[in-house]
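Notebook entry, structure prediction.
Reason for the run: the old model in the group folder had no record of what sequence produced it. Starting over properly, with the input documented here first.
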Amino acid sequence: MANNEQQSAIMAGFDDRRVILTFPAESLILKEGDRNVDMYKIIQGQAEMYVGYGTDKESLLGIAGPDSCFGELGLLLGAPSIYTVIAYTDVSVLRVTSDRIASFVKENQTSTLQIMRNMAETMSVMQHQIMDLSEEINILKNKEENDNSELEKEIIKSYVRPQGMKGKMYFMGRGKH
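New structure, fully documented this time:
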């Protein structure tokens, strides 16, 4: 499907309430920790996704391309963003609001499945991190005789908080998984 045809297909069913936003390269699209109640689907361009952006704990999660979505936690849970999104190139996105989500799911089944895969992959990564943390805590307990409960809490907090979350980097684009 040609890009213009794809864009027309994406916008179908949104009548005059559709919203297409554009962001120039290097601009901030979504900031970690900010409340955002919309989800975005990239129509054109690429965006970088970071945790800890602008800090000494900055980590690139991946580069999102056409057909990728971000901000789904804000839309689905009303939760603050767990990452920062920066336009890598000029980016055009389809903004999906709570009153458009049903139409979006119906018209964008592939995107919906990708969102679910991304969430499942994130849960899998977090499960492995928790297992690794448990092993590290057990090693520390065996090495030291004193009470490590405060150390355990600090280690767990650093992995549970988004700004300290360490995960693998992967490319999120055109249905690649």
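Summary: Residues 1-18, 164-177 have pLDDT under 50 and may be disordered.
The old model has been moved to the deprecated folder.
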